[in-house]
Design a protein that fits this description.
Layout lengths: L1 H11 L9 H4 L4 H11 L12 H17 L9 H5 L3 H17 L9 H13 L18 H10 L14 H15 L8 H6 L5 H14 L1 H49 L7 H42 L13 H50 L2 H6 L8 H20 L1 H16 L5 H33 L7 H25 L7 H16 L1 H25 L14 H61 L6 H17 L1 H16 L12 H32 L3 H14 L6 E2 L1 H10 L8 H14 L7 E2 H12 L5 H11 L8 H7 L2 H10 L18
Antiparallel strand pairs: 1-2
InterPro entries: Actinin_actin-bd_CS (IPR001589), CH_dom (IPR001715), CH_dom_sf (IPR036872), EF-hand-dom_pair (IPR011992), EF-hand_Ca_insen (IPR014837), EF_Hand_1_Ca_BS (IPR018247), EF_hand_dom (IPR002048), Spectrin/alpha-actinin (IPR018159)
Keywords: Actin-binding, Calcium, Coiled coil, Metal-binding, Repeat
GO cellular component, one term: cytoplasm
Length: 848
């Protein structure tokens, strides 16, 4: 009651009067009407001057009617109770007046009057030790909160640092005395009541604190201006941080691509299979360990760039232009070049492996044939140069001649082998075999020797023909053996070569073809066995004849160097090599069957993963069109898809393991699926990029909607109109489509020359880079600017002018007093010194 009395007297004294007893002095209504005139600044109807009860009731009713006209509902308070001196009703009426005229007008960030007053106290006392304002009763008991409010606005009146929380009475008396003496705020509270009461009266404290608020209301304008500046500076600081981070990430990513490209473009190798396999393993390590973090870095870079551009548009700042060579398009082009180099590098590695594998096979084949040929030619030159026939008898001469004929037949039979050796050497040269020098040297030695053999053979034949006229006896059996043994021996040599010949196959059909050919060969062994027995029987017949008739030198066959033992040894070799060849072919068959299983395993998994990625991509694209629910719903669904994609990653990893088995098995084709590991990798990366890009776009749209104050219905209308004219679902509109979209939203664009000028002006806003297309974020930004208002440069300058007390400059101490420390220092570092008239030391030019 004392507080309300003091509050009333603080206003009545302006009219030269006061009250002593609140329940008695308002009974006639005269001072009540006078109080309302003082606090409202308005004139009430002329009071009745009579002293009768009905005169008093009429005056009180005039006061109550005035209160109700101010929008205050008086519940259960009537003129009769006031005239009769009802203390409870009188105090209720005074509290209603205080709420309406002293507290209701308090406004802090669109809160209620009580909440706003409490927030004002909290902000003003936040820097002070031992002050924590949470309510209007216990928080003010120790008096420090009152002292802090006075010191915040008038630090010259109270030395706050000398106050102690342990002296509440001293603190309260200090605050009340200073407020009454210097701030013209009367003592409305009793310090003893505050300290001795468990729960001080909240209304009394609010009434007294409201006097502080109105006393310092002038400082509130400065606080509002400071808040506006803080908001703008905070946006500037965040934008600068995003710009610096973008430059750092872009430089790092481009430098990594620059370092990686020479390695991917290099085609140097030691021309060996082991060297290429090592390069392939290095490439796998690169794709598995080095590239994935760079994919994430690229996505983060694009996200930061889009967020920065959105924030710049929302704060009416110019669009951010990265330094030369670090545009998003530059990074995209560099990334595209990297992926192209990866693809060509991997294709080159696989083709090199196939080429080198064939080279190794050809080199082994060359060595094998050359070894056989050189073994056959060993001693042939000495034999052809021999003059043994000159001391022979007739039969011996005939034998030598037949022997030479057999040799010529053998020589002709070996012509194919020499041609094969030369052809293989030529192919090794064409394919750039790493040891082609030694191959060429050996091939040249064989060809030179072959030419010498041809010449020696012709000369020996001429010599034998010369001696034939003298020596003609022949041995039919030796001749028959020589004729039949030579081709059979060649067949044995060729068969042994074929049985140990190496092969490379990649499909079941190829290995099955080799098995079928081998089975056909085995079917001919019966006839070969008959031929072998027939030839050997000739030798047995010769031996029998020589033993029977004791022919001197008859066991020596004059027509051939072949013996039955030679044929027997080679025939035995052939019979042993056949089952070995069977085993080799069966092993290769099992290998190809295993490769076929790996093909099917990869195809089965790829045919699951590929369609799944395509479905997810279609779903994300549909959400990105903004036609399914609110932005929050879209963001929620996109993050659900993001979680689902990351949860699906083990399937990709499993497929990578299978793909590694495919490459290790040298499997190059798979007829069971249309998908390759490369296409699945690209699809997976595109899906992740699409989800991140759509999440970023939706978050930016939410940021635009919330910061600009547009409704969900407006946003839906903008999206619906944009999608209607985006026929191809590309997320962008051509100029004609954009104009039609604006018209559909009620935007008036004339068809005359002025209308075209206006449209070109709008087009320059939404497409500043003249790309020829309008994207949805630029369209949304334009539409929100058309329907909302934002902070202007003039508003910011006016805010600085308020802080500077209308001076053309501002001092560092003023900035530090009104702004948070970090933003005050931000301004001080960036404002140039003021150089105008009446400048003082340290003055700063806030107009800049």
């Amino acid at each position: 009651m004392n507080t309300f009395t003091a509050w009333c007297n603080s206003h009545l004294r302006k009219a030269g009067t006061a009250i002593e007893n609140i329940d008695e002095d308002f009974r006639n209504g005269l001072k009540l009407m006078l109080l309302l005139e003082v606090i409202s600044g308005e004139t009430l109807p002329k009071p009745d001057r009579g002293k009768m009860r009905f005169h008093k009731i009429a005056n009180v009713n005039k006061a109550l009617d005035f209160i109700e006209r101010k929008g205050v509902k008086l519940v259960s308070i009537g003129a009769e109770e006031i005239v009769d001196g009802n203390l409870k009703m009188t105090l209720g009426m005074i509290w209603t007046i205080i709420l309406r005229f002293a507290i209701q007008d308090i406004s802090v960030e669109e809160m209620t009057a009580k909440e706003g007053l409490l927030l004002w106290c909290q902000r003003k006392t936040a820097p002070y030790k031992n002050v924590n304002v949470q309510n209007f009763h216990l928080s003010f008991k120790d008096g420090l909160a009152f002292c802090a409010l006075i010191h915040r606005h008038r630090p010259d009146l109270i030395d706050y640092h000398k106050l102690s929380k342990d002296n509440p009475l001293e603190n309260l008396n200090t605050a009340f005395d200073v407020a009454e003496k210097y701030l013209d705020i009367p003592r409305m509270l009793d310090p003893d009541d505050l300290t001795n009461t468990a729960m001080p009266d909240e209304r009394a404290v609010m009434t007294y604190v409201s006097s502080y608020y109105h006393c310092f209301s002038g400082a509130q304008k400065a606080e509002t201006a400071a808040n506006r500046i803080c908001k703008v500076l905070k946006v500037n600081q965040e934008n600068e941080r995003l710009m610096e981070e973008y430059e750092r990430l872009a430089s790092d990513l481009l430098e990594w691509i620059r370092r990686t490209m020479p390695w991917l473009n290099s085609r140097q190798t030691d021309n060996s299979l082991a060297g290429v396999q090592k390069k392939l393993e290095e490439y796998r390590t690169y794709r598995r360990k080095h590239k994935p973090p760079r994919v994430e870095q690229k996505a983060k870079l694009e996200t930061n760039f889009n967020t920065l551009q959105t924030k710049l548009r929302l704060s009416n700042r110019p669009a951010y232009m990265p330094t030369e060579g670090k545009m998003v398009s530059d990074i995209a082009n560099a990334w595209k070049g990297l992926e192209g180099s990866e693809k060509s590098f991997e294709e080159w590695l696989l083709s090199e492996m196939m080429r080198l594998e064939r080279l190794e096979h050809l080199a082994q084949k060359f060595k094998h044939k050359a070894d056989i040929h050189e073994d056959w030619t060993r001693g042939k030159e000495e034999m052809l140069q021999s003059q043994d026939f000159r001391q022979c008898k007739l039969n011996e001469l005939k034998a030598l001649k037949k022997k030479h004929e057999a040799f010529e037949s053998d020589l002709a039979a070996h012509q194919d082998r020499v041609e094969q050796i030369a052809a293989i050497a030529q192919e090794l040269n064409t394919l750039e075999y790493h040891d082609s020098v030694s191959v060429n040297a050996r091939c040249q030695r064989i060809c030179d020797q072959w030419d010498r053999l041809g010449g020696l053979t012709q000369r020996r034949r001429a010599a034998l023909d010369e001696a034939e006229r003298i020596l003609e006896k022949i041995d039919i059996l030796h001749l028959e053996f020589a004729k039949r043994a030579a081709p059979f021996n060649n067949w044995l040599d060729g068969t042994r070569e074929d049985l140990v010949d190496m092969f490379i196959v990649h499909t079941m059909e190829e290995i099955q073809g080799l098995i079928d050919a081998h089975n056909q060969f085995k079917a001919t062994l019966g006839e070969a066995d008959k031929e072998y027995n027939s030839i050997v029987s000739l030798v047995r017949e010769v031996e029998s004849t020589v033993q029977k008739y004791q022919v001197p030198g008859g066991l020596e066959n004059p027509y051939t160097t072949l013996t039955a033992n030679d044929l027997t040894k080679k025939w035995t070799d052939v019979r042993q090599l056949v089952p070995q060849r069977d085993q080799t072919l069966q092993n290769e068959l099992r290998k190809q069957q295993n490769n076929e299983m790996v093909r099917r395993q990869f195809a089965e998994k790829a045919n699951q993963v590929g369609p799944w990625i395509e479905r997810q991509m279609d779903a994300v694209t549909a959400i990105g069109m903004g036609i399914q629910g609110s932005l929050e719903d879209q963001l929620h669904r996109l993050k659900e898809y993001e979680q689902a994609v990351y949860a699906y990653k083990p399937h990709i990893e499993e497929l990578e393991k299978i793909h590694q088995a495919v490459q290790e098995g040298m499997i190059f084709e798979n007829r069971y699926t249309q998908y390759t590991m490369e296409t699945l990798r690209v699809g997976w990366e595109q899906l992740l990029t699409s989800i991140n890009r759509n999440i970023n776009e939706v978050e930016n749209q939410i940021l635009t909607r919330d910061s600009k104050g547009i409704t969900q219905e407006q946003l839906n209308e903008f999206r619906s109109s944009f999608n209607h004219f985006d026929k191809n679902r590309t997320g962008r509109l051509a100029p004609d489509e954009f104009k039609s979209c604006l018209v559909s939203l009620g935007y008036s664009i004339g068809k005359d020359r002025q209308g075209e000028i206006d449209f070109q002006r709008i087009l320059a806003i939404v497409d500043p880079n003249s790309t020829g297309y309008v994207h949805f974020d630029a369209f949304l930004d334009f539409m929100t600017r058309e329907t909302t208002d934002t902070d202007t440069a003039e508003q910011v300058i006016d805010s600085f002018r308020i802080l500077a007390a209308d001076k053309p400059y501002i001092l560092p101490d003023e900035l530090r007093r009104e702004l948070p420390p970090d933003q005050a220092e931000y301004c001080i570092q960036r404002m140039p010194p003021f150089k105008g008239l009446n400048a003082i030391p340290g003055a700063l030019d806030y107009m800049s």
